[in-house]
Amino acid sequence: KAINAALDDVTNASTTTASFALETLRSLKNKLSQLQGRANGISKAAASILDSDQDLLFMNISRLWDDPDIIYGDPEELENLRDPEQLLETALHDLGRITSKAEALQQLISNSESVMAFKMDFARNTMIFISTLLSVVLLFLSF
Questions:
Q1: Which residue from 31, 75, 81, 133 has the highest number of Cβ atoms inside 10 Å of its Cβ?
Q2: Is 126 helix (H, G, I), strand (E, B) or coil?
Q3: pTM for the full model?
Q4: What is the pLDDT of residues 71-111, one digit of tens each?
Q5: Alpha-carbon span 92 to 28, nearest angstrom
């Protein structure tokens, strides 16, 4: 919500309030990048755990404590120990969704920054044009 409000401020801002709106947006963009980095790190860790059957087995530590030989047991019995795997897969799916939303917001922020930069460039060019026009008029008036 904060990002959407900042984007609205940037797109509707006049040139005088544009720098404040851009600074707010830049701060939110940095926070979003940090969130995206954390989500990617957690996703990689979860995927690494999901790739290792032994790591998944060790997540059932209470069952392992009760029956340490379960590691060397029947493969069918190992299939009963898939609860942590399902939880991790669900978390990995949710993290993928979060990462996708973060990437979409990053793109939206970049587009808004570009639009605001165009507006600020136009205002600057207008001021340069007016300044040049006034200089030419004053030059002719001085003769």
A1: 81
A2: helix
A3: 0.61
A4: 666 656 555 556 777 788 888 898 889 889 888 888 888 88
A5: 24
